[in-house]
Amino acid sequence: MNRILVALLLWLSVVSHSALASVLAIDYGSDWIKASLMSPGTPFDVLLNKDSKRKIQSTVGWKKEDRLFASDAFNIAGRFPTDSFSSLKYLQAAPYDSPAVSYYISISSTELLETSRGTVAFRRSDGSEWSVEELVAMQFAYIRDLAETSLGGEKVTDVILTVPPYYTQHERDAVIDAVEIAGMRTLALIHDGSAVAVNYAMTRTFEKPEYHIIYDAGASSIRASLVSFASVPAEPKSKQLATQITVHGVGYDRQVGGTEMDRRLREMLIREFDKKHHKDIRADRRGMAKLWKEAGRVKAILSANTEAMASVESLAFDIDFRTKVTRADFESVCKDLKQRFASPIYDALDFAGLTMDNITSVILTGGATRTPMLQAAIKAAVGDDKLARNVNTDEAAVLGAALYGAGLSRQFKTKDIRVGDINIHDIQVSYQAEAKAKSDAAKPRTINTVVFPAGSRVGSRKTLTFKRKDNFAIQLNYKNQPLAGYPLDILEAEISGIPEALGNLTERGAIDPVVKATVVLSDSGFVSVQDAVAFGEIKDDSITGKLKGLFGSGSSSDAAPTEQETLARSEAPEDESSSESSATPSPTPTPEKKVSPKDNTIALELKINLSSIPPMSVAQKRASRDRLAAIDREEAAKRRKEEARNSLEGYLYRVRDLLEEDSTTPFMKCSQEQERNSMREKLDETFSWLYDQGDDAQTADYIQKRSAIESIERPVIHRYKEIEEFPKALNSSQMWNWSTRLFLTEAHQNLTASLEDPNAPPSKYTREELDALEKTLREHEAWLHEMVEKQKLVKMNEDPVLESSVLKEKAKKLENHLQRLVKKKPPRVKKPTTSSSASSTSSTSTGEQARETEPAGGHDEL
Ligand SMILES: *[C@@H]1O[C@H](CO)[C@@H](O)[C@H](O)[C@H]1NC(C)=O
Ligand SMILES: *[C@@H]1O[C@H](CO)[C@@H](O)[C@H](O)[C@H]1NC(C)=O
Ligand SMILES: *[C@@H]1O[C@H](CO)[C@@H](O)[C@H](O)[C@H]1NC(C)=O
Ligand SMILES: *[C@@H]1O[C@H](CO)[C@@H](O)[C@H](O)[C@H]1NC(C)=O
Ligand SMILES: *[C@@H]1O[C@H](CO)[C@@H](O)[C@H](O)[C@H]1NC(C)=O
Ligand SMILES: *[C@@H]1O[C@H](CO)[C@@H](O)[C@H](O)[C@H]1NC(C)=O
After folding, report:
1. How far is residue 367's CA from residue 379's CA, in Å, rounded to a whole number?
2. What sections of the protein cross the membrane (predicted)?
3. Residue 734 beta carbon below 6 angstroms from any ligand 5 atom
4. Mean pLDDT, to the nearest integer, of 125-136?
5. Nearest C-alpha to atom 1 of ligand 5 is from which residue?
6. How far apart are CA 60 and CA 398, in angstroms?
7. Is 358 close to ligand 1, i.e. is its CB under 6 Å away?
8. 718 phi and psi, to 5 degrees?
9. Which of the pair, 597 or 208, is modelled with greater confidence?
10. I need a labelling partner for 803 at 20 to 30 A (CA). Which of 176, 348, 577, 773 fits?
11. Residue 234's Cα: distance from chain center in Å?
């Protein structure tokens, strides 16, 4: 069984801060995006929108030139119906001509077109075209930016996403393509039901195994996942327990959900409008978009009330539309849905081979479970006592996914929760039978064998053995159409180099060598052909060879193929701890031939040919990424321009106020008439420039206009700054003057004493040293005196003759000279007495001690 370690955060533990990366979890719904960030040192919670909302509307759009996200983008649909893109989840890898796309067209007012890959793109009102992947990528990037902002700018690249368990390989590819266009990396995909189960298990222990159904009713679908929870030893024979979550069955309905209810409610409104006004609103994109929004609003009101008033001003044809909608009427148009609400639960039970008796509870989650008629249907189906509302309706999946992602990255201190998930579509391998004889060119037979039946564990692999002589290709495809109009084919793998490899093995004594191909079902639910080899047992006369023959290790003799090309055997999953956790949308071919140590397998060449809806190519993704980056750059430039303009405008008003103030303000006191005049002149000029040409100007123009006025203002500001600074600098300067004088007086006394009294301690300083300092001091005093006198004559609105910076610089020179002497080592004492030796020790002071003798206050200031 596949094991994925998932973690409950008792607390986030930081191993080494620099090595850690954050994990972003995204639950991308049809109506709402929920996101959560797992980051060292950050509280674990859902990510908040710019306006502190916990869920973010899944919409991107443009209001003319400006790109908008979330509710801003949703709310403009009524004005710009072809520029607001919602419910994109319906369209991930949807074939352009499929019923899913027709359905989308019935709920959306956008303009669709087909991409070169056969999927959907949109045409905006400005004519530009955007693929679904690009629009989803923009939303992923928007979420990423929110996350990075919340981390103070730290980069976020690893993302884990929830997907519905029914998502096909193509749909999963579309999710990952969007992540890559957004410049991020997919850590894993997790089924949303399993993510909710992880969230459920976080705070619970399971003494004996329990079965629960996670019932998730979203906007675009309803799904039920039957999961078991059990405590298992973390390691074999270990006392430590882990929680094992196992998925046993899934049921779903891709045609029922909140959106379908919205659609039916809007149909009611359309009929009412038609009845009252006899006009066809369907042709009016704006009107339809407004009614869509109103239907959602009315549905929400009807969840809590038995009636609601629908009201749209100027809906279409200049008509203000108002009508009453009752819950009873709404429920009657949804009557046929009622039995569909509960059927995923029964499907999940059938899938798992269990009955409702085995189920402890049905855990409700998803926005559509707020609708009373859905609640009633589920209650009727499962009974009141089994209905559980013990997880967060909106956030359980994303929080579970974040924990799962944290477990994968193994950087967080975690509770041990393991998920054993399943694939729910039958996946088969198909290939052409080899012609029995050269002449037998009649009709090629196709052989189909299911390799991963529905219910197969993800994170497993199977080795297929073929008795083939020539190169051939195998296809992986769905046995049944996953959704009407969706393709069956997943990929094709051409295996070549077979005749040469078989010839080599035969030459070396192998009997009946075969071709083996390994197919993989990754943890994220992708299938691929991982490698292909030629294999033959070579007669080995050594002891180990004989032993191996005895125990039949690696033997394929039991395969006993009934026909030449039969798929002889599919082995049980080999490698249960294989780390297929990273999403691998397209397998990498292994072209180089290598021979195994046993010399009995030879790698074959694999060429993967992708399906009718291939994932985007590297070049396509790069092109999309460049388009998104261009928008980002444009928006950044626009923001900078906006900022420069605002800054200029703000500055102009401030300067105007300065000029209008009375004469007591520092600005007025420190400025000259002529300066003010020239500022006023420039100010008027700039105001009228801003008024006339401000809208077409460049960022640099705004900046240049501002600095033109600033250059006149700057000397004025400098003057009043100096008026503040100067006394402080002067004080400090005088302090040094004063300390130096004090020092000199004392040092002279010591020198005189040592010369006159032989018992006195020797002087630390020579006369020359003291004279030099005396000279520096006198020069400093003289300079200071002269400059201060000059400065006294300077008026407030004139530039100072003595700058505080110069004052500090000069004081520093004096200080340095003084410090040099203070730090000087005392001369050696010839005959140390106890007292003199003590004093000599204390004066052999380190720099730090010497500095304690510095004049107080002086050092800090300079
Ligand atoms: C499910 O319930 C049936 C009948 O109550 C019981 O026989 C069976 O063992 C249960 N299965 C599991 C897996 O608990
Ligand atoms: C078979 O493979 C071995 C190992 O790579 C190589 O040395 C040898 O030349 C090959 N023989 C033939 C006939 O291709
Ligand atoms: C690859 O797939 C395409 C589309 O299915 C098909 O037209 C083409 O022939 C295939 N190429 C090979 C080499 O099989
Ligand atoms: C003067 O001598 C005394 C006593 O020896 C000493 O503590 C002091 O640091 C000396 N002062 C100077 C400036 O050298
Ligand atoms: C420097 O200090 C001396 C002694 O304290 C004082 O007489 C003199 O006026 C000071 N000079 C200046 C410029 O402050
Ligand atoms: C000068 O500095 C001293 C010491 O830092 C302080 O006590 C005194 O108040 C200051 N005088 C002026 C005018 O700033």
Report:
1. 17
2. none
3. yes
4. 98
5. 737
6. 21
7. yes
8. -60, -40
9. 208
10. 773
11. 31
Round the average pLDDT of the chain to a whole number and report it.
86
Q: Token pair of 305, please? A: 């009330």
Torsion from C-alpha of 10, 49, 145, 81, nearest 10 degrees? 140
Q: What is the pLDDT of residue 609?
A: 86
Instruction: Tell me how far apart the alpha carbons of residues 90 and 132 are, in angstroms, rounded to a whole number.
Output: 10
Q: 566, 511, 610: which is closest to 93 by C-alpha?
A: 610
Residue closest by Cα to atom 7 of ligand 3? 612
Pair of tokens at residue 627: 């388009």
pLDDT of residue 3: 34
Q: What pLDDT shows up at residue 409?
A: 79
Q: State which of 492, 494, 529 you would mutate to test the pocket of ligand 3, scoring each by most atoms of that ligand within 8 A of its C-beta.
A: 492
| Cβ-contact 392, 366 below 8 angstroms | no
Residue 778 CB–ligand 5 contact under 6 Å: no
For the CA of 733, the closest atom of ligand 5 is: 14
- Per-residue pLDDT, averaged over 78-97, amounts to 97
**pLDDT tens digits along 54-66:** 999 999 999 999 9
Fold of 621-713: Substrate Binding Domain Of Dnak; Chain:A; Domain 2 (1.20.1270)
pLDDT(592) > 60: no
HEC states along 398-436? HHHHHHHHHHHHCCCCCCCEEEECECCCCEEEEEECCCC
Distance (Å) from CA 746 to ligand 4 centroid: 7
Q: Which fold has domain 2-258+338-420?
A: Nucleotidyltransferase; domain 5 (3.30.420)
If one residue of 781, 784, 792 were mutated to test the ligand 5 pocket, choosing by the most ligand atoms within 8 A of its CB, it would be 781
Lookup: tokens for 217: 């009713």
The predicted pLDDT at position 858 comes to 36
More confident residue, 662 or 687: 687
Instruction: Decide: 25 and 405 in contact? Cβ < 8 Å.
Output: yes
241 lines ligand 1 (CB under 6 A): no
Counting residues of the chain whose pLDDT is more than 90, the rounded percentage is: 76
For a substitution probing ligand 1, which of 208, 356, 357 has the most ligand atoms within 8 Å of its CB? 357
Instruction: Give pLDDT tens digits for 213-237.
Output: 999 999 999 999 999 999 999 888 8
Other residues' Cβ atoms within 10 Å of the Cβ of residue 362: 24
Map residue 488 onto helix, strand or coil: coil
- Comparing 820 with 43, the larger pLDDT belongs to 820
Q: How far is the CA of 731 from the centre of ligand 6 (A)?
A: 6
Selected residue with higher pLDDT from 829 and 799: 799
738 lines ligand 6 (CB under 6 A): no
Q: What is the residue extent of each domain of the chain?
A: 2-258+338-420, 427-616, 621-713, 721-831
Confidence of residue 42 (pLDDT cuts 50, 70, 90): confident
Q: Residue whose CA is closest, atom 1 of ligand 1?
A: 358
pLDDT reported for residue 436: 66
pLDDT tens digits along 412-458: 777 889 999 999 999 999 999 877 665 556 677 899 999 999 999 99
In angstroms, rounded to a whole number, what is the distance separating the alpha carbons of residues 804 and 800?
A: 9
- Specify whether the CB–CB gap between 716 and 667 falls below 8 A: yes
For the stretch 736-757, pLDDT in tens is: 999 999 999 999 999 999 888 8
What is the longest distance spanned by two Cα atoms in the chain?
132
Cβ contact 365:388 at 8 Å: no
Query: What is the average pLDDT across 68-88?
Result: 97
What is the number of other CB atoms lying within 10 angstroms of the CB of residue 799? 13
Which of the listed residues 354, 359, 360 should we mutate to test ligand 1's pocket, taking the one with most ligand atoms within 8 A of CB? Answer: 354
Q: Whose CA is nearest to atom 4 of ligand 2?
A: 595
Ligand 2 atom at shortest distance from the alpha carbon of 500 = 14
Which CATH class for the 427-616 domain? Answer: mainly beta
SS3 252: strand
Q: How far, in whole angstroms, is CA 387 from its chain's centroid?
A: 34
